[in-house]
UniProtKB/TrEMBL annotation:
The keyword ATP-binding does not apply. InterPro entries: GalP_UDPtransf1, GalP_Utransf_N, HIT-like_sf. The keyword Cytoplasm does not apply. Keywords: Carbohydrate metabolism, Nucleotidyltransferase, Transferase. This is Galactose-1-phosphate uridylyltransferase.
Length: 260
């Protein structure tokens, strides 16, 4: 029997393309995003400016495993009065305060061209990955992560078995400032609605993570005027951000401290 050690493309050594030489100072330019057909302002020099704004306290390291004040814990009472079951794995329930509802009414008609509205319907659910409050995805076992992925797969059949790459990325986020990294995350599946009749076989399921930390564990990344009102902007070049994550160890910082 012949075996071959084949690595995933994400594990192969990466050499960034030398595309910025003609730009002069690469820390100040607009970068074209071909996926969105849009331009992003890159101001990589801004992270060097002195910070005299608000400083955040790092999250506590001694998070209780079960907290009666945490409405997501097993047996806890949520804001709507419902009591969670004594779950031992993943727990999925409808969001008590959803952004979308499946039975949203149709808005009234308007003859004015500037006042247009359409019904927005959807289903919002909450998933508790694990019954312990002090355990995040990067610290869970592969079997526990697989249970999370299986629960995802029940909600979206396209997810498949990509859980190792999800865990590796989140470990690097945690290792960046050695805290449990806060983030907002969303999955992007194939187009729906009027695109269902089109061939979307080329579509790749992907996730977006929006971390609010950039400088350190205590300094948040705040949106400023031109980001909210003009165009997308980033304080690092894509190459700098990718290299920072790529250079981090793949062993979680909490597990490294236990091994020492």
């Amino acid at each position: 029997m012949v075996t071959e050690d084949v690595q995933h493309p994400a594990l192969q050594p990466y050499s960034p393309p030398q595309v910025l030489g003609h730009m002069g100072d690469p820390s100040k330019h607009a970068r074209y995003n071909p996926l969105r057909d849009d331009w992003v302002l890159v101001s990589a020099h801004r992270v060097k400016r002195p910070w005299q704004g608000q400083l955040e306290k790092p999250p506590p390291e001694d998070v209780p495993r079960w907290d009666p004040n945490n409405p997501l814990c097993p047996g806890a009472t949520r804001a709507n009065g419902e009591v969670n079951p004594q779950y031992e794995g993943t727990f999925v329930f409808p969001n008590d305060f959803p952004a979308l509802q499946p039975d949203a009414p149709e808005p009234g008609d308007s003859d004015h061209p500037l006042f247009r509205a359409a019904a927005a319907r959807g289903v919002c659910k909450v998933m508790c990955f694990h019954p312990w409050s002090d355990l995040t995805l990067p610290l869970m076992s592969l079997a526990e992560i697989r249970a999370v992925i299986d629960a995802w797969a029940e909600l979206a059949a396209e997810l498949g078995a990509s859980y190792p790459w999800v865990q590796r990325l989140l470990i690097k986020y945690d290792n960046l400032f050695e805290i449990s990294f806060p983030y907002s995350m969303g999955w992007h599946g194939a187009p729906t609605g009027p695109y269902l009749e089109e061939d979307c076989g080329h579509w790749q399921l992907h996730a977006h993570y929006y971390p609010p930390l950039l400088r350190s564990a205590t300094v948040r990344k705040f949106m400023v005027g031109y980001e909210m009102l003009a165009q997308a902007q980033r304080d690092l070049t894509p190459e700098q951000a990718a290299e920072r994550l790529r250079s981090l160890p793949e062993v979680h910082y909490k597990q490294r401290s236990k091994e020492m």
